[in-house]
Design goal:
The chain has 110 residues and is mainly α. Helix content is 42%, strand content 10%.
Amino acid sequence: AVAVLGSSAPDAAVALRLAMRARRDRSDLVAVVDSDDAGRAWGNRLAALLIDHGHRLTVIEPPIPGGDLNSWAQRDPSWTAAIEARTRSTDPTRNERAGPRRVDFGIDLW
């Protein structure tokens, strides 16, 4: 797990480092974004950058409107289990060029 601090504008260097780490560790990439327009935009931008490096990003939004990971963790002691369940449900055969898989607990899934 990594945290991207100062994440208002993900860039190619951040995406490259994440892609290299995921490749080295044979890990999936998952981002828990703020559940607002800015958070969604951040997730979409990072997903597009990661596609350029051959990786798909699973984007998860907290079930709290306008919430972030911190507020979710403070309100729900089972937040980690919810993330694990959502990441296990991703389809590994999905075409990476199709874009991010968004998991936001029932609001919309694409």
